[in-house]
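Tip: read the tokens left to right.
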């Protein structure tokens, strides 16, 4: 099971849409929104997520999605 965590302090409408997209397009993925991920300087300047405990960042939610997809492996994408 892949885990993807998002920071509540980084949450925007765009990021909520990204979470919905991840939950609908990936199998074997558990998402959660945490109070703080402990990466405050990154969180303040761009979108962040922890994918399987590794920090993933992106200037946009699209970039973040692509980087998450590459990290967890496209083999888990639902077709």
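Filled-in amino acids:
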């Amino acid at each position: 099971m892949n885990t993807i965590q998002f920071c509540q302090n980084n949450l925007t409408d765009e990021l909520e849409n990204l979470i919905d997209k991840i939950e609908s397009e990936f199998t074997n993925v558990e998402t959660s929104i945490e109070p703080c991920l402990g990466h405050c300087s990154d969180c303040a300047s761009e979108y962040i997520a922890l994918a399987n405990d590794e920090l993933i960042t992106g200037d946009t939610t699209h970039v973040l999605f692509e980087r998450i997809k590459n990290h967890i492996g496209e083999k888990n994408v639902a077709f």
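The longest strand covers residues 2-7. The beta strands are 2-7, 29-34, 47-51, 54-58.
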